[in-house]
Amino acid sequence: MSILIDFGRDTEFSFERRLRGYLGAVARAVGVGLESCTFDPGTPAAAYIALDWRLARFPGHDLALVWDEVHGWAAAIEDGTATILAYLGGEVLPEPRAVVRFLAAVRADDPDAGTPEAPVLREAGDHEDLLKLVPEVAPAGRG
Fold it and tell me: Judging by beta carbons within 10 Å of its beta carbon (0-12, 13-18, 19+), is residue 12 exposed, middle or buried?
């Protein structure tokens, strides 16, 4: 019985570590640090990246990226809560470059930037399965 418990702990530890590394890679790719991020490894796993940008059509609201294990990445504005503007769609954990392209399209007011409908990319839970989808990312350089 303890082997199963230890295996479960190892999976969750690996999941949190790899997902945190992926989140850091996406944050670096969009030009912010981990101090701008929050991460909830629960079910559903979720993340938030605060950005220092505002959109012309929402001048009083900061822009953010939000992610969860069901819908993937989305661009949102901060208006007391995170109001979703568009979902990236496609993959639940795309390469950071894909998130950068999506964010650039949202910032450019591209009407084809994502979809307003929340895609269902997977069911929440089974972090062992989700762990297999986390792209390998290079660790942050040390200064």
Answer: middle
- E runs forming strands in 1-119: 37-40, 46-55, 58-68, 72-78, 82-87
- List, for residues 83-121, the tens digit of each pLDDT value: 999 999 999 999 999 999 999 999 999 988 999 999 999
Q: Which residues contact 99 (CB under 8 A, 6 or more apart)?
A: 26, 29, 30, 65, 73, 88
How far CA 60 is from CA of 9, 56, 73, 111, in Å, comes to: 43, 9, 22, 21
* Nearest-angstrom CA–CA distance, 74 and 86: 6
